[in-house]
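Batch job 17 of 40 flagged for manual review because the log was empty.
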Amino acid sequence: MQILWNIYESVGESIFLILVLPLALPCLAGALPGIIEHRRRRQLEEALPEVLESISSSIGAGLGLQQAITEISRSRKDQTGTLLTQAIERSRSTSFDAALAEYAISSRSTLIQRVVNLLSTAIEQDAPIGEVTNSMSVEYDRLNKLINTRETEMSAQSMLLLLLMCLLLPGIMGFMFAIFGSFTPGAYWGHIHGVMIPYLMASAAVSVVISGRMLGRTKQALWGIPFWATLSGLLYIALFSAIQGSGLA
């Protein structure tokens, strides 16, 4: 109980931690829609090469583009099939090109929007759609593999950065000040927590922004700043108080 009381008193020494602490969990919850949307968009993009290959095969079998997409929308039960079904249904009251454009917009993916623009251009120029879609299928399959590889590597590096700056750094600082600092004869440390907590929270915030930039999702990463900053400050205080309370210092 004494350790918990020491943590409570230490938290009160930093106005920054008092202000940010209530925002940690709500902001973390606010990041969930962005994560869900990113996964949804990647699922649509990863299905794109298979859709293009199916279009190429259907056109090679003698079907038109609209018929090929209709068959794909009926056979697929995922998010891609749902969006294509909606596009086909709306094409009955509008043009097929407008329905494809609406599908691209609904996907909220620049990759899919680029493919739809290429298809529209190919249709206007009477290009062989079967060959065009087959070629795009191969190229976008390679592109998806590169994107997945990059995201895997960047995710590992960004998480390592967060662990180092938001967990390891405050842990080291809390340990050092508790063991070597507070009871050094003749040394005056004053209200060291009032200086260290804002410093660690600021370091955590910068690390979160850099981590988000590495993944290409800076705006989404901003939601995580209160959580990681609070975690960094609390870890520093908790370790400092635990060591002092245990009598190791």
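Reviewer: the log was empty due to a logging misconfiguration, but the result itself is present. The first helix runs from residue 2 to 11. Unflagging and moving on to job 18.
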